[in-house]
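In full, the data.
>
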Amino acid sequence: MDPREDIIEERLKNIRRIIAVSGGKGGIGKSLISSTLALKLSETGFKVGLLDLDFTSPSTHIILGVDKTYPEEKNGIIPPKIRGIEYMSLVFYTEDKPSPLRGFDISNALIELLAITIWDQLDFLVIDMPPGIGDMMLDIIRLMKKCEFLLVTTPSKVTMETVEKLMSVLKENKVPTLGLIENMKMDNSPKFQLKKYGVPILGEIMFDRSVEDSIGEPEKLLKTNFSKSLGNILNQIAQSP
């Protein structure tokens, strides 16, 4: 057994809840929902951390406008605070360059990042998950035992099919699932029907053209209709056990 895994348990012990935002595919708004959720929780008064684990294409730093801010090294790595949120991402070490990792290297990088990051006492740690159902997700389930999943889909048959497969994997592994958010909804979008997994639909977020103009400006992002819709869903997430 990797001795770093014992350290991970110690690093996470002061975090009350860990929420992994996932959906199985890229381009469905996971990073935007993760970032905005962290901002809204912090705005509500919770102590919040945001961990970007999308090693292939991290983007939460772009959404939050993180620039010239770096972790502090002190018996590990202390995440910097971005608008009151403790923030950690592999991008601090890759400098926005591609980081093509395979198999064992992905697990090794994940374990190392979790082992060296020293979180403060937090109410919520929000995780921006990578797309896909693979090693990274299974490692997170194994290493972060308190993890709850928040699922995201768009009104697309392809995306809906993928998220149902993700639900199946989570159910098989007995992982708590908070519910599903339908993102980028249009007036004529098809209705998403859950088949057999007992996962509640938490709400719909209509497509908001103003979001693109708010990227990199958290204050502006919080004023969008997208943020307001997510705020309505937030109460269900915050009140879950």
The CA atoms of residues 71 and 107 lie 22 Å apart. Residues 157-172 form the longest helix (16 residues). The chain has one domain: 4-239. The mean pLDDT is 90.
